[in-house]
Amino acid sequence: MNIPETGFAGIIAFIFGTCIGSFVNVCIHRIPNLTSIIYPPSACPHCNTQIRFYDNIPLLSYLWLRGRCRHCNASISFRYFLVEIIGGGFALATLLNFGFTFEGLIYYCFITILLIISFIDIDSKMIPDIITIPGIPVIFFASFALPKVTYIDTALGILAGGGSLFIVAKTYYLLTKKEGMGGGDIKLLAMIGAIIGWKGVFFTVFIASWVGTLTGLLMMCRTKSSMKMAVPFGPFLSIGAIIYIFFEAPMTFWYLYMF
Predict the structure, then answer these.
(1) What is the pLDDT of residues 78-116, one digit of tens each?
(2) Which of 48, 58, 81, 204 has the most C-beta neighbours closer than 10 Å?
Protein backbone atom coordinates (compact mmCIF):
# COMPACT_ATOMS: atom_id res chain seq x y z
CA MET A 1 0.00 0.00 0.00
CA ASN A 2 1.65 3.24 -1.10
CA ILE A 3 1.42 6.59 0.67
CA PRO A 4 -1.56 8.01 -1.31
CA GLU A 5 -3.50 4.78 -0.81
CA THR A 6 -2.61 4.77 2.90
CA GLY A 7 -3.81 8.35 3.25
CA PHE A 8 -7.11 7.63 1.54
CA ALA A 9 -7.61 4.45 3.57
CA GLY A 10 -6.83 6.37 6.73
CA ILE A 11 -9.50 8.96 5.95
CA ILE A 12 -12.06 6.23 5.29
CA ALA A 13 -11.06 4.44 8.51
CA PHE A 14 -11.40 7.65 10.54
CA ILE A 15 -14.83 8.44 9.08
CA PHE A 16 -15.96 4.87 9.72
CA GLY A 17 -14.66 5.13 13.28
CA THR A 18 -16.59 8.34 13.96
CA CYS A 19 -19.78 6.58 12.85
CA ILE A 20 -19.00 3.75 15.27
CA GLY A 21 -18.30 6.41 17.91
CA SER A 22 -21.78 7.82 17.33
CA PHE A 23 -23.23 4.35 17.94
CA VAL A 24 -21.03 4.01 21.04
CA ASN A 25 -22.71 7.15 22.43
CA VAL A 26 -26.08 5.44 22.03
CA CYS A 27 -24.81 2.35 23.84
CA ILE A 28 -23.33 4.40 26.70
CA HIS A 29 -26.67 6.14 27.23
CA ARG A 30 -29.02 3.18 26.81
CA ILE A 31 -27.32 0.03 28.10
CA PRO A 32 -27.37 1.09 31.79
CA ASN A 33 -31.11 1.79 31.40
CA LEU A 34 -31.65 -1.65 29.82
CA THR A 35 -33.26 -0.10 26.75
CA SER A 36 -32.81 -1.10 23.12
CA ILE A 37 -29.74 0.27 21.35
CA ILE A 38 -31.53 -0.08 18.00
CA TYR A 39 -34.97 1.44 18.53
CA PRO A 40 -36.22 4.13 18.94
CA PRO A 41 -33.96 6.39 16.86
CA SER A 42 -31.70 8.90 18.58
CA ALA A 43 -33.42 11.83 20.27
CA CYS A 44 -32.45 14.96 22.14
CA PRO A 45 -31.87 14.06 25.81
CA HIS A 46 -33.62 17.28 26.87
CA CYS A 47 -36.74 17.68 24.72
CA ASN A 48 -36.84 14.08 23.45
CA THR A 49 -37.32 15.25 19.86
CA GLN A 50 -36.10 12.70 17.33
CA ILE A 51 -32.83 13.77 15.73
CA ARG A 52 -33.00 13.97 11.94
CA PHE A 53 -30.33 12.25 9.88
CA TYR A 54 -28.77 15.55 8.81
CA ASP A 55 -28.37 16.53 12.46
CA ASN A 56 -26.80 13.19 13.31
CA ILE A 57 -23.69 13.30 11.11
CA PRO A 58 -20.68 12.46 13.30
CA LEU A 59 -18.58 15.51 14.28
CA LEU A 60 -20.00 17.79 11.58
CA SER A 61 -23.51 18.11 13.01
CA TYR A 62 -22.17 18.94 16.47
CA LEU A 63 -19.96 21.68 15.02
CA TRP A 64 -22.70 23.01 12.72
CA LEU A 65 -25.23 23.22 15.56
CA ARG A 66 -22.57 24.53 17.96
CA GLY A 67 -23.29 21.78 20.44
CA ARG A 68 -26.97 22.59 20.82
CA CYS A 69 -30.28 20.94 19.97
CA ARG A 70 -31.90 22.39 16.86
CA HIS A 71 -35.36 22.28 18.49
CA CYS A 72 -34.97 23.30 22.14
CA ASN A 73 -31.52 24.94 21.91
CA ALA A 74 -30.37 23.01 24.96
CA SER A 75 -26.65 22.38 25.26
CA ILE A 76 -25.48 18.92 24.19
CA SER A 77 -22.56 17.46 26.13
CA PHE A 78 -19.18 17.83 24.46
CA ARG A 79 -18.57 14.19 25.34
CA TYR A 80 -20.70 13.09 22.37
CA PHE A 81 -18.24 14.87 20.08
CA LEU A 82 -15.27 13.53 22.05
CA VAL A 83 -16.38 9.90 21.83
CA GLU A 84 -16.83 10.23 18.06
CA ILE A 85 -13.28 11.57 17.73
CA ILE A 86 -11.93 8.76 19.91
CA GLY A 87 -13.79 6.21 17.80
CA GLY A 88 -12.26 7.65 14.64
CA GLY A 89 -8.81 7.87 16.21
CA PHE A 90 -8.81 4.23 17.28
CA ALA A 91 -10.02 3.12 13.85
CA LEU A 92 -7.14 4.99 12.23
CA ALA A 93 -4.62 3.67 14.77
CA THR A 94 -5.82 0.11 14.24
CA LEU A 95 -5.48 0.45 10.48
CA LEU A 96 -1.95 1.83 10.76
CA ASN A 97 -0.89 -0.92 13.16
CA PHE A 98 -2.64 -3.97 11.72
CA GLY A 99 -3.76 -2.98 8.22
CA PHE A 100 -6.96 -4.24 6.61
CA THR A 101 -6.83 -7.58 8.38
CA PHE A 102 -9.18 -9.76 10.38
CA GLU A 103 -6.80 -9.28 13.30
CA GLY A 104 -7.26 -5.52 13.10
CA LEU A 105 -11.04 -5.90 12.94
CA ILE A 106 -11.08 -8.06 16.08
CA TYR A 107 -8.93 -5.59 17.98
CA TYR A 108 -11.03 -2.63 16.88
CA CYS A 109 -14.25 -4.34 17.97
CA PHE A 110 -12.65 -5.12 21.31
CA ILE A 111 -11.44 -1.54 21.78
CA THR A 112 -14.93 -0.29 20.95
CA ILE A 113 -16.35 -2.53 23.68
CA LEU A 114 -13.79 -1.14 26.13
CA LEU A 115 -14.81 2.39 25.15
CA ILE A 116 -18.46 1.65 25.93
CA ILE A 117 -17.60 0.00 29.24
CA SER A 118 -15.27 2.80 30.32
CA PHE A 119 -17.78 5.62 29.89
CA ILE A 120 -20.57 3.61 31.49
CA ASP A 121 -18.28 2.97 34.46
CA ILE A 122 -17.43 6.68 34.68
CA ASP A 123 -21.11 7.61 34.67
CA SER A 124 -22.60 4.95 36.92
CA LYS A 125 -19.66 3.30 38.73
CA MET A 126 -20.75 -0.04 37.31
CA ILE A 127 -19.72 -2.37 34.51
CA PRO A 128 -22.75 -4.09 32.95
CA ASP A 129 -22.74 -7.89 33.02
CA ILE A 130 -24.69 -7.85 29.77
CA ILE A 131 -21.41 -6.92 28.06
CA THR A 132 -18.72 -8.75 30.00
CA ILE A 133 -20.34 -12.14 30.68
CA PRO A 134 -21.14 -12.97 27.02
CA GLY A 135 -18.02 -11.05 26.00
CA ILE A 136 -15.66 -13.50 27.70
CA PRO A 137 -16.55 -16.60 25.59
CA VAL A 138 -17.10 -14.58 22.40
CA ILE A 139 -13.71 -12.89 22.64
CA PHE A 140 -12.08 -16.17 23.69
CA PHE A 141 -13.16 -17.86 20.45
CA ALA A 142 -12.43 -14.75 18.37
CA SER A 143 -8.88 -14.71 19.72
CA PHE A 144 -8.18 -17.99 17.89
CA ALA A 145 -7.84 -15.86 14.75
CA LEU A 146 -5.07 -13.77 16.32
CA PRO A 147 -1.53 -14.82 15.42
CA LYS A 148 0.10 -13.51 18.60
CA VAL A 149 -1.79 -15.60 21.17
CA THR A 150 -2.63 -19.27 21.55
CA TYR A 151 -5.75 -20.76 23.07
CA ILE A 152 -3.64 -21.65 26.12
CA ASP A 153 -2.59 -18.01 26.48
CA THR A 154 -6.19 -16.84 26.31
CA ALA A 155 -7.44 -19.51 28.74
CA LEU A 156 -4.72 -18.59 31.22
CA GLY A 157 -5.51 -14.93 30.57
CA ILE A 158 -9.13 -15.44 31.63
CA LEU A 159 -8.06 -17.27 34.77
CA ALA A 160 -5.33 -14.76 35.58
CA GLY A 161 -7.59 -11.79 34.88
CA GLY A 162 -10.59 -12.91 36.84
CA GLY A 163 -8.60 -14.71 39.52
CA SER A 164 -6.10 -11.97 40.30
CA LEU A 165 -8.69 -9.27 40.92
CA PHE A 166 -10.92 -11.74 42.77
CA ILE A 167 -8.08 -12.45 45.19
CA VAL A 168 -7.36 -8.75 45.61
CA ALA A 169 -11.04 -7.96 46.23
CA LYS A 170 -11.47 -10.78 48.77
CA THR A 171 -8.26 -9.89 50.58
CA TYR A 172 -9.31 -6.25 50.84
CA TYR A 173 -12.71 -7.27 52.17
CA LEU A 174 -11.18 -9.60 54.77
CA LEU A 175 -8.88 -6.84 55.99
CA THR A 176 -11.35 -3.95 55.97
CA LYS A 177 -14.79 -5.59 55.91
CA LYS A 178 -15.62 -3.25 53.04
CA GLU A 179 -16.08 -3.80 49.31
CA GLY A 180 -13.06 -2.25 47.58
CA MET A 181 -13.57 -3.57 44.06
CA GLY A 182 -16.73 -4.52 42.25
CA GLY A 183 -17.39 -7.78 40.48
CA GLY A 184 -17.62 -5.87 37.22
CA ASP A 185 -13.89 -5.13 37.28
CA ILE A 186 -13.15 -8.83 37.82
CA LYS A 187 -15.24 -9.86 34.83
CA LEU A 188 -13.78 -7.04 32.73
CA LEU A 189 -10.21 -8.16 33.38
CA ALA A 190 -11.19 -11.76 32.60
CA MET A 191 -12.57 -10.51 29.27
CA ILE A 192 -9.36 -8.57 28.65
CA GLY A 193 -7.33 -11.68 29.41
CA ALA A 194 -9.31 -13.57 26.78
CA ILE A 195 -7.75 -11.49 24.02
CA ILE A 196 -4.29 -10.46 25.25
CA GLY A 197 -3.37 -13.50 27.34
CA TRP A 198 -1.92 -13.80 30.81
CA LYS A 199 1.14 -11.64 30.07
CA GLY A 200 -1.10 -8.84 28.92
CA VAL A 201 -3.23 -9.19 32.05
CA PHE A 202 -0.34 -8.50 34.42
CA PHE A 203 0.85 -5.60 32.28
CA THR A 204 -2.69 -4.20 32.21
CA VAL A 205 -3.04 -4.39 35.99
CA PHE A 206 0.34 -2.70 36.45
CA ILE A 207 -0.50 0.21 34.13
CA ALA A 208 -4.06 0.52 35.47
CA SER A 209 -2.81 0.66 39.06
CA TRP A 210 -0.29 3.40 38.34
CA VAL A 211 -2.54 5.50 36.13
CA GLY A 212 -5.50 5.00 38.49
CA THR A 213 -3.44 6.00 41.53
CA LEU A 214 -2.06 9.13 39.90
CA THR A 215 -5.50 10.11 38.60
CA GLY A 216 -7.06 9.55 42.01
CA LEU A 217 -4.43 11.71 43.71
CA LEU A 218 -4.92 14.50 41.18
CA MET A 219 -8.69 14.36 41.65
CA MET A 220 -8.35 14.48 45.43
CA CYS A 221 -6.02 17.46 45.23
CA ARG A 222 -8.36 19.25 42.86
CA THR A 223 -11.60 18.54 44.75
CA LYS A 224 -10.06 18.28 48.23
CA SER A 225 -11.79 14.94 48.69
CA SER A 226 -10.79 12.24 51.14
CA MET A 227 -8.91 9.01 50.42
CA LYS A 228 -12.27 7.22 50.48
CA MET A 229 -13.38 8.83 47.22
CA ALA A 230 -14.60 6.17 44.80
CA VAL A 231 -12.77 6.11 41.47
CA PRO A 232 -13.97 3.73 38.74
CA PHE A 233 -11.22 1.25 37.85
CA GLY A 234 -12.67 0.03 34.55
CA PRO A 235 -11.33 2.92 32.42
CA PHE A 236 -7.81 2.35 33.72
CA LEU A 237 -7.96 -1.37 32.95
CA SER A 238 -9.11 -0.40 29.46
CA ILE A 239 -6.20 2.02 29.06
CA GLY A 240 -3.71 -0.66 30.10
CA ALA A 241 -5.18 -3.20 27.69
CA ILE A 242 -5.21 -0.77 24.76
CA ILE A 243 -1.59 0.23 25.38
CA TYR A 244 -0.64 -3.44 25.36
CA ILE A 245 -2.49 -4.09 22.11
CA PHE A 246 -0.72 -1.30 20.23
CA PHE A 247 2.69 -1.42 21.91
CA GLU A 248 3.02 -5.01 23.06
CA ALA A 249 6.69 -5.60 22.22
CA PRO A 250 8.29 -2.39 23.59
CA MET A 251 5.97 -2.22 26.58
CA THR A 252 6.59 -5.84 27.53
CA PHE A 253 10.34 -5.31 27.26
CA TRP A 254 10.12 -2.20 29.44
CA TYR A 255 7.92 -3.95 31.99
CA LEU A 256 10.26 -6.95 32.27
CA TYR A 257 13.31 -4.70 32.42
CA MET A 258 11.82 -2.72 35.29
CA PHE A 259 10.96 -5.85 37.24
Answers:
(1) 999 999 999 999 999 999 999 989 999 999 999 999 999
(2) 204
